[in-house]
Structure formats: C-alpha cells, structure tokens
Amino acid sequence: MNKRTNQKFSADEVEWLLLVARGGDHTEIPLQHKWIARMAPIEARDELLFRFQRLVTTLVNVCLTGRPDNWSSYQKTFLRMLGGNSEETAAKLKRDLADFHKTELFSTGQLAVLQAIETSRGNLAATIVIRFRDLIEELIQKVETTPIDSLPMDCQAKDELKDIVDNICFQDFLSNLSEGDWIIASKLMDGEPVKNVPDSLKEAMKDYLDAKNSSIC
Which of 66, 161, 187, 200 makes a 20 to 30 Å CA pair with 75? Predict the structure, then answer.
C-alpha cells in the first residue's frame, strides 16, 4: 500500500477512467490504455477515488487545521470561493466545522469526487474543488453559522474573476479549464503577476465574458 501511495499517475488516463466509470463506450479507449477498458465501472470509479484522495486530503486539512497551504493552488482557489483573505477564511472554516468529525469531512470529500465523476465536463480536479465547496457550505448551513461569504474580500478582483467567483457559470468555466490554465487562473484570482497568459485561457475567458455580457449566464 505504501508503494502505491507514492506512485505517480498519468493525467491522460483520467479521461478514460471517467469514460469507464460512466459506463461509456470502451472501444474509444486507445490501445495503450486497454487495461482501463477491462475495468468494470465501479473499479474505474474506485481508481479515481484513490487517485484524487490526495486532493481531498488537501481540502479537508484546511477545514480541520484552519491553516492554509499557500503552495496549493486548488486549496487557495477553494478558500477564495468561500470568502476573501485565505487565513481568515481558513480560520472561520475550522470554527464553523468544529462540530463535524474529521471522518465526516473526509466522507464529504469522497462524495465531492463521486459527484464530480458524474458531472465534470473537463477538469475533474477543478470540479472536485467546486463540489466540495458546495457540500461544505451545506454543512455550515446545517449548524446555522454566519455565511462564510460574508467575509470581506482582501484584494481587488482582476479581470473580473474574483468578483464573479460565486457565479455558477464561472464555476463551469473553471471546471472546463485544463490543469495548466486552472493554475494561471488561480494566480490571476489571487492577484499574482503572470507574465504570459496562454491563448487558450484568453479565449476561454473571452467566451465566458461574452456569454456573461449577453446575459446567457
């Protein structure tokens, strides 16, 4: 088990694991990934749960400790979705979730993965973050605490990203970005300098903003 924990996985396998987990057409799977085609849907689902358990742990840990990890782009974006200043938001998360045992929070993380498997149209990891955010907000509402989005924002939005972070269309926009574009978008949301924004992200942002301005979103 320890050996497998340290194993590195190929990102392009996730697409085919998703296909199998959803009961899709196995004949579409490339020859080099035929071992995935031999899986049953539940096996592919469990494989995805295992592969993304590290991401789940990262998200759950900030809820338990109240201390943000500034090296994790996914955790930073998760906190940004919930409020403003990462340290303030993380501390409030810990207080608001104090009544929940860590096993319940980890189960919530696994549920976020399962929901993302069903709904993701692009970046599965990004969708997991969004679904986990939604589930955490539901837990907070159960204990009738102050909504976490009442926290003040700590810096100005850049390219309208942070101002619309709770918009459902923006969530879909994020979940459809490639991992590389997601990281760049996260830096922009945090006000970090970015020398070169990829054309793919520029085009995605343009399409999103065009849809927003035309009231499609």
Answer: 200
